[in-house]
Design brief:
Elements (H helix, E strand, L loop, with lengths): L10 E8 L6 E7 L5 E6 L2 H13 L8 H27 L53 H11 L4 E2 H8 L3 H14 L2 E5 L2 E4 L1
Antiparallel strand pairs: 1-2, 2-3, 4-6, 5-6
Helix pairs in contact: 1-2, 3-5
């Protein structure tokens, strides 16, 4: 007998006594490995037959009572034969053909409503206005460059202008004035009439 706790076979019987009905022997066992205790019920075929007889023929039936045994056996055989006949009858009958279930037709999906188009606001045509013609006099005068200012001073004086006078009127440095004079004289815009004196060409 295996121990239900550890699965070992080695165990000993602590207590042994018959059940109240007398159909089995109750044994209290102890495992020699894990010391676990468990109960077993042992019965013989004769004891099982006696239990069945008492259920069908009454409490007074015993194994020695032949009439009780015969009545029990006949009742058991009748019940068994009836069950066998029912099974044979059910096997012999052809099963009615099952009606094939018609597949359910799915309803066609409803068409989705088309979204309403929003009315566009009327587009106003914007006419670009032509800019008014500005007279030539109203146009802003261009800023004069350093060369233009120096040449303007030289043109304004017919007798000639030297570097000191140009520096006084324009406010430019000597080196800047001399560079402008050198470039203008090469281009033929001015000419020298004396030592350090220049007039317009």
């Amino acid at each position: 007998m295996e121990c239900p706790f550890c699965g070992k076979i080695d165990n000993g019987v602590i207590d042994s006594r018959p059940t109240k009905e007398g159909t089995a022997i109750r044994r209290r066992r102890k495992c020699l490995d894990c010391a676990g205790r468990f109960t077993t019920y042992e019965s013989t075929p004769e004891q099982l037959l006696l239990l069945l007889m008492r259920r069908h023929a009454g409490r007074g039936a015993t194994a020695k009572n032949s009439e009780a045994v015969l009545s029990f056996m006949s009742n058991a055989l009748k019940g068994l034969s009836e069950e066998i006949e029912k099974l044979v009858g059910e096997v012999g009958k052809p099963e009615p053909p099952k009606k094939a279930k018609k597949p359910k037709r799915r309803a066609a999906p409803k068409p989705k409503p088309k979204p309403k188009r929003k009315k566009r606001a009327p587009v106003r045509k914007i006419v670009a206005r032509k800019p008014k013609k500005v007279p030539a006099k109203a146009k802003k005068a261009k800023k004069l460059t350093a060369t233009d200012e120096v040449l303007k001073v030289i043109k304004g004086d017919k007798k000639g202008v030297d570097v000191a006078k140009l520096k006084k009127k324009t406010g430019f440095a000597d080196t800047k004035i001399r560079a402008i004079i050198f470039k203008a004289s090469k281009e033929g815009k001015i000419k020298r009439v004396g030592r350090g004196v220049y007039v317009s060409a």
